Amino acid sequence: MINIQQIEEQHTSGVYAKRDLVLTHGHGALLYDQDGNEYIDCVGGQGTANLGHTHPKVSAAIAEQAATLNICPEIFYNEQRARYMERLTGLFPEMTRAFLCNSGTEANEAAIKFARAATHRTGIIAAMRGFHGRTFGSLSATWNKHYRGPFEPLVPGFSHVPYNDLAKLDAAVDESTAAVLLEVVQGEGGVNPGSTEFLQGAQQICHERGALLIIDEVQTGFGRTGKYFAFMHHGLQPDIVSLGKSIAGGIPMGAVVLNDQIGRLNPGMHGSTFGGNPIACAAALATLDVLEEEQLPERAAEMGKFLLSELEQIESPLIREVRGLGLMMGIEIKKKVAPYLAALTERGILALPAGMTVIRLLPPLVITYEQADKVLEALNEVLVE
Fold it and tell me: What is the pLDDT of residues 84-101, one digit of tens each?
């Protein structure tokens, strides 16, 4: 048998800390390795698998479009792109324009550029513990020194304030601020939900001082938190929303949705060779169909309440706090999580860290109650026994 791990180790760049698993196929919330072992996926493709793996409707849309037209840059019109832009912007009040790209970090990169262009200002304020990507602009908005350190100096004009601290944000926004960039729930930063007071206050401060509010929905979007987008929990009307991860059912894609007040951007200001390609748009259209037909945002809200309630009942001296929104949950413990993630893997559960001490769960929104019970059982074994 070919030693897949040996080949990858020989040729990989080294920027990924790989786990000792060779995954070969999956369906729904389940994944399988080369030895036939089954796992319940709470990594969820790091947030890209809201619909689960190999959803038949998305797979069919990809296959049909791949046999029709693979690429059509935005210098030409295309039916799939037109239909998708119409469907996507229809989910946002007072937002009728979108820029399509290939990932969440590209979406944040574009959002930052558009904010500077629209306001003729340079300052970008983000939150401590926030994560917005790894390209230079989005990395400059990201807080973690581990990600930033090797590449400094980064893009000038960025600053950070404590998350959920409205007074500090109020003091930071001035006439040089182009935008405030926030996650509604900080994912990489520990699964930290924002308060309504903080998020609505941020919006008010931006509107009063001529800055734009950018909401990063890369991880929280498309039903993950129990609504189509997390900002809807707080009655926000952001100026710019960045999207990625689960936007196209696992196919690489990102998008930026723009408030109508920003208006139409100038040709050549930004671009993306593969952005809005017909295959990604076909997959994204199918994703919206599935979210609606299977009522997955509602399912995430219901399943999330169940799981959060059960997690809060785990009696373990290791647990500091359980928090989350919908099917985006974090269990903060008093030790480093790496050994506990390994122990979960041995029990057939794949999970993520969010920092050094938080176990993060991002299961597909199609996870069943039977599968959720198995996840809870494994967590009880690992954290209690």
Answer: 999 999 999 889 999 999
Residue 185, token pair as written in the block: 């729930």
Gap between the Cα atoms of 229 and 215, Å rounded: 10
Number of domains present in the structure of the chain = 1
Question: Strands of 358-361's sheet, edge to edge?
Answer: 319-325, 328-333, 358-361, 352-353
Question: 């991880």: which residue's tokens?
Answer: 219
Tell me the three state secondary structure of residue 204. Answer: helix
171 Cβ contact partners less than 8 Å away, ≥ 6 residues apart? none
Q: Which positions are annotated as active-site residues?
A: 131, 216, 245
How far does CA 176 lie from the centroid of its chain?
29
Asked whether residue 78 is assigned to any structural domain, the reply reads yes
The encoded tokens of residue 97 equal 């324009």
Asked whether the beta carbons of 233 and 227 are under 8 A apart, the reply is yes
> Does 37 map to a domain?
no
pTM above 0.85, yes or no: yes
What is the CATH number for 118? 3.40.640.10
